[in-house]
Amino acid sequence: MMVTAGNPWGWLLGYLVLGVTAPGHTPFRAPPPEALATPRGHAPFGAQRRTTSLNPCPTSRRGPAPDALAPSPGAPSRLPGGISALRPPAGSSHPGSHIINGEDCAPHSQPWQAALLLDNELFCSGVLVHPQWVLSAAHCLLDSYSVGLGLHNLGTSHEPGSRVLEPLLSIRHPEYDNPAFANDLMLIKLKEAVPESSTIRSISVASRCPVEGDACLVSGWGRLANGGLPSRLQCVNISVAPQEVCSEVYDSVYHYSMFCAGGGPNRRDSCHGDSGGPLVCNRSLQGLVSLGHIPCGQPGSPSVYTNLCKFTDWIQQTMHTS
């Protein structure tokens, strides 16, 4: 979802990844998707991967990653001073500017929300589904990163009840990106189990698949409607979109591992920086933020979420055997 201005094509798909830059740090952007969807009526979706029409990342730090990665022995903590250095740009948020027409979440009302951090920067979100396991989008995988739990206000130094942990394993779904954009999930095993508290708690993965009209809530620290980045975790209520709308809007890339939500006239949506974050429906984790159209929040253009009900067996088996 990161496209250069003036692109003549009406729709380009992109992953919802954008780093939150700490002062004094070079901005980091996770690699853009290598697949491009062209408008209907033009050339069909091609197997060749391209990045030139998307914001390039020539110095990407994500190398070819195997299905399971363990960090290098003795790797230093990414946040030596706790989370005090993790701050969105000054002035990026102001009252009334919410993530595509959402609002500040009540503090720690989403205690399963995780932040994936690289060099003191937020680059993706995740979801605590077990005291030692976090789910996120597979396209968020980096060679080295940290996981923040119990966070709400990224502008607060040493937020009470928060933890920053290193991952022990990062395990992508074996069919990720086969076909392109499909099966976008990974499991992250933390180096230690985290005890439940008022600020940190896991959520169960839905075994029931989503139904059109289901009321859901998506949360994250991604782009706001005004283009800024928030300090506080943002929440927005959206509904599951009809499957036929999802398959039509994303015709060339639609896959059974996906479902859509949002796209209504209220322009509520997830956006850049929310990747891997939770979509909670009926008090269960129904989906993970995956991809969408640009700009975010356009009526008739719902965003795509990983359909977790299709992966309950893989999730349980992987956590049990890894």
SSE map:
Blueprint (H helix, E strand, L loop, with lengths): L13 E2 L52 E2 L33 E2 L8 E6 L2 E10 L2 E4 L9 E4 L13 E3 L1 E6 L13 E5 L24 E6 L13 E6 L3 H7 L8 E4 L16 E4 L2 E9 L10 E5 L4 H10 L1
Antiparallel strand pairs: 1-15, 2-9, 3-12, 4-5, 4-7, 5-6, 6-10, 7-8, 9-10, 11-12, 11-14, 13-16, 14-15, 15-16
User: Mind describing the biggest β-sheet?
Assistant: 8 strands, antiparallel
Helix-strand pattern: EEEEEEEEEEEEHEEEEH
- Percent range for β-strand residues: 15-25%
Low-confidence stretches: 1-99
Shape: globular
Give the terminus-to-terminus CA distance: 33 Å
Q: Give Rg in angstroms.
A: 18 Å
> Which structural category do the helix and sheet elements fall into?
mainly beta
What is the number of E strands?
16
The percent range for helix content is under 10%
Counting H and I runs of at least 4 residues, what is the number of helices? 2
Provide the residue-averaged pLDDT: 75
